[in-house]
Amino acid sequence: MNPGEFVVYISLAxxxxxxxGMVINPNMIKKIISLGVVETSVTLFYVGISALSGTVPPIxxxxxxxxGQYADPVPQAVIITGIVIGFALLCLSLVFTIMLYNxxxxxxxxxxxxxxxxxxxx
Amino acid sequence: MIPxxxxxxxFIGTIQLIFRKYRKFNIAISFIYLIFNLLMIVHYxxxxxxxxxSNWGNLGITIGYDQMTEMFLIASLVVFSAVIFNSLSKNxxxxxxxxxxxxxxxxxxxxxxxxxxxxFVSVELxxxxxxxxxxxxxxxxxxxxxxxxxxxxxxGFNVFLLGIGIVYTNTGTFSxxxxxxxxxxxxxxxxxxxxxxxxxxxxxLWLPDAHSKAPTEVSAILSGVIVKIQVxxxxxxxxxxxxxxxxxxxxxxxxISAIVGVVFAINAKNVKRILAYHTLSQVGFxxxxxxxxxxxxxxxxxxxxxLLFIVVGNIYERTGILNYKEMKGKITKIDxxxxxxxSLAIMGFPLTDGYVAKHELFIHCSTPGFxxxxxxxxxxxxxxxxxxxxxxxxxxxxxxxxxxxxxxxxLISVIFYIGLRFFxxxxxxxxxxxxxxxxxxxxxxxxxxxxxxxRLEKLDNALLIYISFIAFLVTYLxxxxx
Amino acid sequence: xxxxxxxxxIVYIIIMSFFLIDLEKADNTNMNIENIILRVNIPNTxxxxxxxxxxxxxxxxxxxxxxxxxxxxxxxxxxxxxxLKKQTLISASHxxxxxxxxxxxxLFVYIVLYGHLSPGGGFGGGVVLASGIVLYAISANxxxxxxxxxxxxxxxxxxxxxxxxxxxxxxxxxSGDFLREISQGQxxxxxxxxxxxxxxxxxxxxxxxxxxxxxxxxxxxxxxxL
Lengths: 122, 482, 226
What we know:
The complex is a heterotrimer of chains A (122), B (482) and C (226). Chain A is mostly helical and 122 residues long. Chain A has a single domain (3-121), classed as Helix Hairpins. In chain A, 74% of the residues lie in helices and 0% in strands. Chain A contains 4 helices and no strands. In chain A, helix 1 (3-24) runs antiparallel to helix 2 and helix 2 (28-50) runs antiparallel to helix 3 (73-104). Chain A is elongated, with a radius of gyration of 20 Å. Chain B has a domain at 145-481. Chain B has a two-stranded antiparallel sheet with strand order 1-2. In chain B, helix 2 packs antiparallel against helix 3 (67-87), helix 3 packs antiparallel against helix 4 (94-112) and helix 5 packs antiparallel against helix 6 (140-171). Helix content of chain C is 73%, strand content 0%. Chain C has 226 residues and is mainly α. Chains in contact: A-B, A-C, B-C.
């Protein structure tokens, strides 16, 4: 099996694990960490698809270019942006959680939702 | 020069970000990009082209311009101008204007971009601006709405990233043309990822909370333009081969959303929630006709929905009332006239742009679609009769605030310009019948209004519904398409 | 029940996607690399894509990062701050963290300046530096670090570097080969063959360092409030 394909399947499995974590954990922090797992597995997916064409790092040492089993540079380059976006989103969600905890002293999604339900009715 | 429409707002946004302490300076330089973009839209009017930045071909980013792009650019320009004018009389800090500028740049970028990954980056930049803008007043409910939005939508966009990764693997490029050669599964992932932000009922149930809790200006932007991103992308992607099998699903989702959204809206009492549920319903209208006519409807909806949100928000900020029944007798004449015009436009009353757009929509949809959309329109009329029959109080005189009134005049003039310019008499009896029926039903059900259960909007349920939808799509693709 | 149901659905989707996913690779890797090498003339093709062919995306990324930093700072402004002033010091961790932060500064300079020749770049370098400094602050002396960074006006410098970065990038979007034309005549694989790329990497790295520091600073100040 191509190493890239192997990485792709592993990343899809960890995507599923991250999503299961997002649904079954009532704790907000654990939900956010699960979202982090999802984001990391997407990064892994991109590494996987760039390794489909070979695993030699695309850093060329000598100038007359010789064809070889290079990894594709494009997915690796674009996913840097994806990582930064994931980082920013995680920071923001943690900040929101801190603020919610300071106001309502709970991290449990069910009790938070009950509180807002009551606020809505007033 | 097209990228400058995107990069100038972003550049000005970065300057505003650095000098965020100087509020007046920030407001002043906001107008530079508004004027510049107006000139650019006039200059590129009716053109249709597409090119890669710095001749990089498949390696670079493709930028394009056509009729649909132009329509959405105009919509975002009008809405953002109105929002900036409306915000002048309130004391938002300088950081607010920086967020607005960057959000505007990111939105324009989505509309001119022909590159899948660039779309992802722009949407995420816009989303981060929106997450911060929703919590601007730091109320608990706002934070929860924003957090819920963040979790659901960033999960959805990871699915989108998987989809474009597969497109790149198979075709070797990120440009939109690659969607012609891609397989159906990547189309599924892309559509699944987009649908979570699309504003369709059952798929984006974070929407009523986020739209109704956000500050006035932000609600207008959210309902006016942010929801249209996904409508725009869905309609644009449907032009490519790998998306063809999804067309029926779009239409059926649109019908469901149009009907269910309007049922929730009729039963709501909180004015901002009524408008938010109507956004769900109206997005259903756009998805029911997923072609250029749906896009036209999206343009017109952007105008009148942002007008409605601005007016209702201003009334709420002045009186502190959200229940529409308590509003009776507290609306000044200055606020009531735009409220009425906006409501008439969303009902599809003749001479407004809502009539023109709905007329086009009804002509170009199938017979069952026509029936369902007519029922949804009757629902819209019932729901907006609540606003129409509020009336204004003759006692209160209402202050004249220049910025706010300019915002009203701007949006109202666009509504009437389109409504009068494209007015036709054909099939006017359908519209009159719908409006008359709606008003009659309104007087029958007036006293039975009671908000419906919003259990579906809870975070876990929303995620579960979303993932069940993806499971449905996967099953449909595996057993009926391939 | 609901949880059980969701686990079944997601497992079903993943199993189906294993059957549906098509990983046939388009054969374009070597062609892409050759095109990039011909036009950009630097060994690290990933940096070339990040800062040349898709620089339009990178502008958004840099803006997004700065926006998130300012946003975090703005949102947390009125939240309560941790009241303990005194920090427990463990001498071993103090010494190791000094060593680590010194290493991280060296690594930062290397990763950033050689980002176009070997793996590395602005974002990675900035994160390395920030993690070294943050490690020092939380394990050794938080107040000293904070005062030093305020004294050297890190925030102002990072703002200036941010503005210069965005300006250069926007200019590159329109002028195409602007970055490359500067480096004409330089030998392939030397430090100066990258033209403005090392400078851009340095500026981005500095911005990322200052932003990450500021963000972690906000979190460290409010430790124990969650």
